[in-house]
Design brief:
12% strand; alpha/beta
Length: 493
């Protein structure tokens, strides 16, 4: 049986009926990973022994007729900035290359409680800093649709794993689009939940007021299922919110008639390097027409402070990164340089040798923005404009139920194309960073292909803690199209 054709609920149902076993599913995916991952470099590590133990536990539960978890037997991949006890959590960085986590992230405990099978850890941009997955110490991830193209970042490994059927779903993290943009580039579904919906405990911090863990999957239903499991308050994370977790699966009824959908005019009017590619604009506008045919009312709205989002994001994010990454000093854990004669040299050389170029660039930008004499001019001003961006969304949601936009202004670009031009790389996130600044939920789903057969994604943005509407609209659209069913090519499989 080809298990890659199944959704997560379908696979779990077959397990319950004893038509398949968790062991044979796990062996199937592990073998597939061994064959295909060398072409992609999407997994940094496979946990074969541990995965087979988890599968054996699921099969025992079925045999003894014990209750099964919602993710029973489902093979998942985990981004390597999410802590997994007794396994390396490297953040794709030399400085944490040999760091074994002493505890589990809350999301790991929750998916394990629901009997998921963790296959391995996925590659990423170092410390989640990047939009192309070219910043990993362990080498870049390749896009399964075209191996000469990037998969997006920073959760490029998780997106590539799902797109190439090396797991049914994966967990990523999203600071400024790091789930949604690679989901768009790889033709899969990626959800950034509302800030506070999912615990960040055990997520290695990049920018604490922006980071959020979320699911990547092949379809909206699997995405909703995974969110159902990982969402909810956590006493270990003071930023997680004490709200009941809705039944996200029950809202997937395909009926969106009567909803009001806003289309921000600023997302289609950019010019120059920020401009949207014709193939992307064409696919997204066609998707909007498809939504209208389902009975929704579409109206143009304005988010007037959108043009400042990139500048605000890269001030706030780098400032928080500068603070968060100060802990990596060669003293307590992580890489320590042997090239030093005093304590100051050890600090300096450990960080200089342990961090990659992009991480050092962002630490320096953030340190400068927080420095005496510049704090008010840069970081404080950025936070003030951030409040205006949030206010734009609040005003828009007085008129509409959700917003739809492109996920990225382009499809996947070639390796090396933007490495020497950081600003061009940063602009890859121009349509996603506002969502993180405002703390809103948003999903990217496939809506077409470019002329050179690369996936195009579009983004559905919801009100605070209204993932239900986001998923409902995404599912209704998905049911009218075949984009999510297309398979990658060029991998020899």
């Amino acid at each position: 049986m080809d298990f890659t054709e199944l959704t997560a609920p379908e696979l779990r149902c077959l397990l319950q009926k004893k038509e398949i076993t968790a062991r044979e599913v796990t062996i199937f995916f592990l073998q597939r990973c061994k064959e295909i991952n060398p072409k992609l470099n999407a997994y940094l590590a496979l946990f074969e022994e541990e995965a087979l133990k988890q599968a054996q536990m699921v099969d025992r539960k079925i045999k003894e007729k014990e209750p099964l978890g919602l993710l029973a037997g489902i093979p998942l991949a985990i981004k390597d900035n999410i802590c997994l006890k007794d396994f390396v959590t490297s953040c794709a960085s030399k400085i944490l290359e040999n760091f074994y986590s002493p505890y589990n992230a809350t999301v790991i405990d929750r998916i394990r409680t629901q009997d998921a099978i963790i296959l391995g850890k996925t590659n990423m941009d170092e410390f989640a800093m990047g939009s192309s997955n070219e910043n990993s110490y362990f080498g870049p991830v390749r896009n399964p649709w075209d191996l000469s193209k990037v998969p997006g970042g920073s959760s490029g490994g998780s997106a590539a794993v799902v797109a190439s059927d090396l797991a049914l779903a994966a967990l990523g993290s999203d600071t400024g689009g790091s789930i949604r943009q690679p989901a768009s580039f790889c033709g899969v579904v990626g959800l950034k939940p509302t800030y506070g919906r999912v615990s960040r405990y055990g997520l290695v911090a990049f920018a604490s007021s922006l980071d959020q863990i979320g699911p990547i999957s092949k379809n909206v239903k699997d995405c909703a299922l995974l969110l159902q499991v990982i969402a909810g308050q956590d006493v270990n994370d003071s930023t997680s919110v004490n709200l009941a977790v809705p039944d996200f699966l029950s809202c997937l009824d395909g009926n969106i008639r009567g909803l009001k959908i806003g289309v921000p005019k600023e997302y289609f009017s950019a010019t120059g390097r920020e401009g949207i590619e014709p193939d992307v604009e064409r696919a997204v506008k066609k998707a909007i027409l498809d939504l209208e045919s389902l009975g929704v009312r579409v109206e143009e709205i304005s988010l007037p402070h959108t043009e400042y989002a990139i500048a605000v994001y890269y001030l706030v994010a780098t400032a928080e990164a500068s603070s968060n990454l100060a802990r990596y000093d060669g003293v307590r854990y992580g890489y320590r340089s042997s090239n030093h004669t005093n304590l100051l040299e050890m600090y300096k050389n450990s960080r200089s040798e342990g961090f990659g170029t992009e991480v050092k660039r962002r630490i320096m930008l953030g340190t400068y923005a927080l420095s005496s004499g510049y704090y008010e001019a840069y970081y404080q001003k950025a936070q003030q404009v951030r409040a205006l961006i949030r206010k734009d969304f609040e005003e828009a949601f007085k008129k509409v139920d959700c917003l739809v936009t492109p996920t990225s202004p382009t499809v996947a670009f070639k390796f090396g194309e933007r490495v020497e031009d950081p600003l061009s790389m940063y602009l890859a996130d121009v349509f996603t960073v506002s969502v993180n600044l405002a703390g809103l939920p948003a999903i990217s789903i496939p809506c077409g292909f470019s002329e050179n057969e690369l996936p195009v994604g579009w983004q559905i943005i919801g009100k605070l803690f209204d993932e239900e509407t986001v998923l409902k609209v995404a599912y209704a659209y998905e049911q009218t199209t075949e984009w999510h069913k297309k398979k990658t090519c060029g991998l020899g499989i």
